[in-house]
Fold this protein.
Amino acid sequence: MIPLSWYLLFAAALFCIGLFGVLSRKNAVAILMGIELMLNAVNVNLIAFWRYLGQSGIAGQVFAIMVFAVAAAEVAVGLALIISIYRRRDTVIADDIDMLKL
Amino acid sequence: MDVMQIIFFIFAVITLVAAFLVVTAKSLVHSALWLVLALFGVAVLYVSLDAGFFAAAQVLIYIGAIAILFIFAVMLTRKDIRDTGTQQNRTWPLAAVLAVVLFVGLFFILSSWSSFTMERPDLVSGADALSNLGQALVSVNAYLLPFELASVLLVAAMIGAIYVSLTKK
């Protein structure tokens, strides 16, 4: 059978790829895609820990459900903000959205 | 290698390659489609962890709702994707170094942990994880409050998304 380490290393790699996307992309929509990958990596870890170590309880699965809900809320608000900014400023490049800078 | 290991290996590689293409593809529509493949690969890994409910929820919520929302957002902000220039910002080599360093660091921290290579225990027989989860989410002694807070958060996010994207003209 599959040892726990395979899942943990897979999740770590997925998280790092998502982090690279968040830090390196210019387009704000693509940055949100990177965040989705990172949240998925966290969920794989939670479910794997539940399956290997926490079967007596249910906390791992409940946490994964919370991550699902937070991801849905985050992407709805995030994309609404990006579309609103696109309408007002005509750009989705994260570097150009600097109204808060002095 | 037994069958489960081969299935895990194939889908882990598919997911990681798709995830890499999500963050590097030039066209954002392609990025969104690779994201669908990566999310599907994660759903297969949920099945391999005996969490079928999460695989179904992954397909419904992530692929069915979030990925489609991404495709809509890409299409509504289309002017910028068609610019032929690079999609990476100036500091992307630094980001790549940081991601690799983080992975190596995680690898060393995880490999020094004693149960890192533990084998999978058998499923607890007689316990139905899905009905336990459903009971726990609505039981006052377990996770009722976080569950209600999550639903309030979703309503707030929905109203906020509608309000933010309203055009006042």
